[in-house]
Amino acid sequence: MTNVLHVRNTLNGSHAYVRHACGAVELSRPTSWRPPTVGTDLSLAHAVDQVLESWREMTARDEMSVQTFDKFSLLLRRFQRNATVRGALLVADVRQDIAEGFVTAKGRSRHGHVTDSSPATQLVRRSVLRIAFRTMRELGLSDQDPTRDIVLSGRTYEGARALTEDEAVSLRHHAAYVTRPTRHAAAAALALAGGHSGEIGHSVAADLDLPHSRVWMRGAIKYDARWCRLDAWARQVLAERARHVLGQHPNPASARLAVSSRPASDAALQARACVALRDLLRRIGLSDDPEVKPASVTARAAVETFEYTGRIEAAARRLGLRSLDRAAAVVGYNWRTDPAHTDGGMHDA
Asked: Phi-psi category of 310—alpha, beta or left, where left has phi over 0 and alpha has psi -120 to 50?
């Protein structure tokens, strides 16, 4: 069995204790931070620990929900065990076939029968691996992505697919601001709440109902006006953005959150909102995906609502849609072929 030895150097300007293979311990000179190594490669177990710690920090910043953290952590640990059984002890050992084997592995139905995993399950598994290796790259632990060429059928509607769960987490993470709350972060928060690009440009500080964690969407020709729920991240982003824009434009009824408050046509406001969202999609590496558009961010809100409630009408209300068929198309739900409703009634349990 491979002899695993972790060596960790501390941050810049501090010393690091290094244990040699012979057992001797030496105080090294101050050095720049380097990732933990196993010989010349990183152990998968240690990399997973580092990824989970990073995810905990993202959860503390509300970039990842507690539910997502729990689900992703469980699946990542499951992948680690699966990969270890197949001989992948190091991160470098994780090839595409190992990642794909985990993504497409059979599972058990709620009746205990071994069955092929559903497309939704495969998408979640791939999401976990994608964000795990993306996190490793950000931590300087690895530059590989064994999921890059794993193609799965996703939810698509009118040429756009909804963001996956990991992509939504990455969008929040990269929308973070350094010195001031930006229009990019506000646009992302409004879209992930369920706002369409034609609505986002019109959103003003007065539309926020922070005590109830919601924002008013004005609607459009195709969409009904409605309240959209804000998660903890979106609530914080929009609260700070509102404070920022009100400092420059003190009228809450005209202080826009995601675009400039200067007079502009509806088309110009929509274009500016789309530019902000496209900038963020480019930052997370999705600019080359022809099925990812600003509408993909909005569609994520409908998918999350449908997955949480199991009700297509709830997803329709979230996006202000007047057609349940249209809402079903957005979330990728084909109610006509739902195996639970093939003869007008529920199957026997």
From this structure: left
pTM of the model: 0.78
| Residue 232 CA from chain centroid, whole number | 14
Q: Which amino acid is at 6?
A: H
CB-CB neighbours of 219 under 10 Å = 15
Q: What is the DSSP letter of 112?
A: S
Report residue 72 as tokens.
């992703």
And the tokens for 339? 């195996």
Could you tell me the two tokens for 228?
């959209």
Closest CA to 222 of 291, 302, 319: 319
CB atoms within 10 A of CB 314: 14
- H or E element: which one contains 88? none
Three-state DSSP class for 16?
A: coil
First-last CA distance in the chain: 47
CB-based burial label for 329 (10 Å; 0-12, 13-18, 19+): middle
DSSP three-state, residue 87: coil
**What six digits make up the tokens of 97?**
């076939």
Tokens 């009904």 correspond to what residue? 224
pLDDT digits (tens, 9 = 90+) for 104-140: 998 776 666 677 888 888 989 999 999 999 999 999 9
Q: How far apart are CA 149 and CA 118, in angstroms?
A: 19
pLDDT band at 152 (very low <50, low <70, confident <90, very high): confident
The pLDDT value recorded for residue 340 is: 53
User: For 204-247, how does the pLDDT look when each residue is reduced to its tens digit (9 = 90+)?
Assistant: 999 999 999 999 999 988 999 999 999 999 999 999 999 999 99
* Sequence-ordered list of residues with C-beta below 8 angstroms from that of 252, at least 6 positions apart, any chain: 204, 205, 206, 242, 246
Alpha carbons within 13 A on the beta-carbon side of 261:
18
Q: State the Rg of the chain over Cα.
A: 23
On the 0-12 / 13-18 / 19+ scale of CB atoms within 10 A, 215 is buried
